[in-house]
Amino acid sequence: MTTRYRVEYALKTHRRDQLIEWIKGLLAVPFVLHSQPTAVFEPRGETVDQMASMAQRRYAEIMRDVEEIINDHIAHQRAGAPDRSKLKLLVPSVANFFTPLALHDAFIWQDQRRFISSRRFVPPSFNDIRLVLNTAQVMSLVRGGPLDLVTFDGDVTLYEDGQCLTPDSPAIPRILRLMRKGTKVGIVTAAGYTEARRYYERLYGLLDALQVSDIPPASKQNLIILGGESNYCFKFESDSPDLLKYVPRKDWLLEEMLLWQESDITELLDIAEASLRDTVKNMRMEAIIVRKERAVGIIPQPGHKFCRETLEETVLTIQKILDMSAVGHRLPFCAFNGGNDVFVDIGDKSWGVLACQRFFGGIEGSKTLHVGDQFLSAGANDFKARLACTTAWIANPAETVQLLDEISELDEMQQRKTR
Ligand code: IMP
Ligand code: MG
């Protein structure tokens, strides 16, 4: 029989974001009280505009309150007692915040674009709140300026799953715009290759555009790639045939990473590989096992697609087995569902982002933004970046473009204010 624990865990914990769900619950009350669904058949009732301004005021007040509860949590963090904040009681899974969140202003901003308050039948949704949180984060970063480092995930964030950053990508001019403003850029991807050529093949649109751009040569150096989550570092180099140069590990590894033992890496990957082989057999998956120096995974046989449930089963099984192993406590790892594959990598994106911060001379988490698509608490690889910096959770490459435009628009507003 399915226990309560399993239902709670399986249905909620790893598939929901508790902070977003909590805010959604708070906004449901003004929606119920102030939306006017009957107005569609009562033409003499309140107009949509009247209703929307009332609803907006109520929603925005709540967002202001949440903003203050987060500020209180940050005050507790600073005092070394984050577990004692009110927010921690309300949302136990909440971690540390690197900056306050301008939630009130961000709600108004998104409401002007998404017309959340004008809706009479559809309450504020997960996606509405996710986007408000992203806007709130970039507002706070820009206001606290300057934004020193932006790290991007690859698949689904910069290009569609399994595709490449081709020259026509609208993200490219926007990334160059960031670099012109002095922001450093890191691509922190799970894709783990030892040769520059493979990264060039995935990212050539951006690399070629940077090469021919009028950005000064010294600033062109402000693009690096951290591949395999936190295993391989390449930096932009105009003279290299693939425009990328391998950076030896000794030049960028953090002290803690030097303690990772080769024997532990092999042991962890062996356990992961055995678990994958088992699941492939049990679930009759048409899979190919891929073992690399710092990763092991399964990809579908040509022409096959895994269903979501099978991928989730695979990743949750492997996560559990590694959590229970001794080596899984000695060594950080990341097991994730890549959409049509499952991989276990040594290290994770928190180390990838920390390595970028170190590479660029010690940039702080409160001056760094990681943009990614995988922020669920299990089976997702961008989630760990939250330990290293502020984050924005996007759902597709078009949202990344929108976010970059928002940063630029907010930046211009900020410049005008300080002039
Ligand atoms: P990301 O979204 O940029 O982090 O890339 C994730 C995808 O990279 C995975 O879903 C895989 O398809 C691909 N990939 C290629 N090599 C590796 C590897 O060594 N580890 C993990 N993922 C890899
Ligand atoms: Mg991704």
TrEMBL record:
One of its GO terms (molecular function) is 5'-nucleotidase activity. Keywords: ATP-binding, Hydrolase, Magnesium, Metal-binding, Nucleotide metabolism, Nucleotide-binding. One of its GO terms (biological process) is inosine salvage. Its cofactor is Mg(2+). InterPro entries: HAD-like_sf, ISN1. SUPFAM superfamilies: HAD-like (SSF56784). It catalyses: IMP + H2O = inosine + phosphate. It is an enzyme of class 3 (hydrolase). Its EC number is 3.1.3.-. The keyword Repeat does not apply. Signal peptide: none annotated. Homotetramer. IMP-specific 5'-nucleotidase involved in IMP (inositol monophosphate) degradation. Belongs to the ISN1 family. This is IMP-specific 5'-nucleotidase 1. It comes from Amniculicola lignicola CBS 123094.
